[in-house]
Amino acid sequence: MGVLDWPGKSAPEGGIEHPAFYHMIDVGAVAECLLAPLDLPAERKALYALAAALHDLGKISASFRDMLREGKRQGAGRHWEVTEVWLRDFDDLLSGIAGDVFDRRDFYAAIAGHHGRPPIQEEFGKMRVAAGKEAQADAREATEALMSLWPGARFDLPWEEVAAQTWWLPGLIAVADWLGSNPVFFPPVAAGPDAEGYLGQARAKAARTVRLAGLDLPDLSQIPVIPDDWTLRPMQLAAQDIALPEGPALALIEDETGSGKTEAALILAQRMMQAGKGRGLFFALPTMATANAMFDRAADLVGRLYDGAPSLALAHGRAGMSARFRELIRAPRGPAQPACTDWLADDRRRALLANVGVGTVDQALLSALPVRHAMLRHFALSRKILIVDEVHEMGDPYMAEELCHLLRLHRRMGGSAILMTATMPVDLRAKLCDAFGCAPPESRAYPALTVAGHAQVTDVASVNTRGPVRVARLPAPEAALDLLQDSVAQGAAALWVRNAVDDAIEAVRMLRARGVRADLLHARFALCDRMRHERNVLETYGKDRRDRPGRVLVATQVVESSLDLDFDVMVSDLAPIPALVQRAGRLWRHMDRRPAAHRPCSAPLLHVVSPDPGQVSDPLWLRHVLDRGAFTYPLDQQWRAARALFSAGQIDAPAGLRDLIEEGLSGGDLPEPLKRAEADRIGQGFARTDHARQNLIDLTASYRQIKGFADDADFPTRLGVEQHVLVLARGTEHGLLPLDADAWTVDSRQRSEISAAARRVNALPLPDQTAPEIMAAKKDWPDWMQARLTMCPVAADGTICEGLSYDREIGLIFGLS
Fold this sequence. Notes:
Residues 242-442 form the Helicase ATP-binding domain. This protein is of the alpha/beta class. It contains 32 helices and 22 strands. Helix content is 41%, strand content 13%. The strands form four sheets. It has an eight-stranded mixed sheet with strand order 3-4-2-5-6-1-7-8, with helices on both faces. Strands 11-12-10-13-14-9-15 form a seven-stranded mixed sheet, sandwiched between helices.
């Protein structure tokens, strides 16, 4: 046999086999195209292209060939594990790529481990026997031929940088292999041309493939990312002028809600890109809702970053539900008009590869956890400026540790980052700066723009025109009901933010019983209904609302971000200071549209339902007033928030905001009945930090040494109340159908999903999943979906099972409806 006689994959019916050797050249050519715009030495680019070409050397194997042609079970070792065997066997040929044999072995494992995890099979003798002596000779010949195509390949980094390269390389190869394996891009070619002749064909196909997939990198634009007819705000002006260091940079934008932090980040990111610190962007947000909002906002501007049309993608599990994203898919890539290709949109991991990506922070954090395809995510992010928004929402010890690790990982490959926040505590700020390897700022000034360890601007004027928000305490929920009833009667747009969904449902029922027009928004709606309620909420209470709606919205934390709402009157359950500041950001928000004279009250006032922090007689201090909402946040932080807030009597943003946040998190001696709660929180924090450290990838290890690489669910990006996903269905004469559609599709299933606390759901007699009508509806679901999602028919009266019902205007209801 010869090198062209080994198949790369099964031939299509009636078609021809594509030789594995040609496929390897295809993938090497794609890697060349992906590497072309990167600022790397020529010998390094040649080495990476050669590595990509060598990735499937293990397909030259009798075991693999017999599996394809005869359907035989494959012997010892899968083809990508056999790749490592051949590379080790041919070390004499490859010794010129790196001087140290142990570096080369780490490198071989990185080449082989392109299927989402490193090779763990070490029975090299058994794999060698199963592959066959004939294959060994041809694989050696193939290696020599591939080396002749990239003769300048050389790996000349110091040993301490080798581990980092072995993490990055599998991601590059995985992307190149994804494209090179696509028969649409690379249709089968019959054996014939020699290696050099076929490389010319492959290079032409690769250039077209990278462009059609949306992975080509347009040239950077020199025009400002913010149009000239915009009036820049103070933070945006600061972003234009602050000095940038050589090499990787970490910037922190700390400013109020509504101050234009996103545009400031884009200005800074453009300057970083023009300085060679990245060729793309990834916006990481805390939730899918905030990611969707950022996507809508960024889509209008990011095209100005490039001379050509960039690819733009939304990266989270429900990206297909975004109308703006659907519009971009298959849209023509006109000048400065971003678009998203089908190939990028097909998988949220691929979405990270777009020139500009927007998604949940989870997609980025997964690059620092030992999950399948972590290195692909790492490769995708390494070329980008990482922009993390709402960083204060990632201060939980588990997520904070992950974010620190992500920053270390990103900087290790030369990446730069921008962190945005309105209410980040100074200790979290210091921890993140330390993780990036920069000194944290000493100044506590707010607002502030900081390039960590290099420069800081603290004379940033405020854009706040509403003035301080006064704070008043309401001693019980009944007082809130009275206040809201009176306010609505005066035509106010009012809001009551409740900490618990059950409390929000109860509040709406009590308001409606009083004749008050009340709306409800929380996270325990099926997605189709939540989207419908959000649209109604934006219309009634949003930026363009009429002046005197005379209604009250009862909501949970879902209104703290992503929804641009404007209320005249606000009530909130007691919460930590950062949450209360976020909520207060929706009070008297758009003063340019509704100045004080147009409001039904004389000044912005935040009413907080809370017991007196000066009267604490037992550990149930908060439970006596807030019931279920008392358990949403740590009790000691709740008390400190109450003490700081009512002592200050106002939220004075920006001048007094930093002190209020710090006082609300750590100020004052706790009353004796609450000290146990603080000790428990601190202990849980240590446990969460330790849990994160055990899960995170060891940065000192090479790729092959990393353990794990299981499903994403086995290494969560965040800890919290475990959720159980239900899929709500309605019975029809045609069987079970989605809640608001006439057929089961990915879109209609997602629109019918609802999540609830697993401990509550699992205690109920949920519908039997082996019932014929349920099995018929789920027949096309993959096994993992069958295991994790529970289909729940909803009766005409809303009943799901005993103790659980669903109302499309109220949501998922536990207990009696």
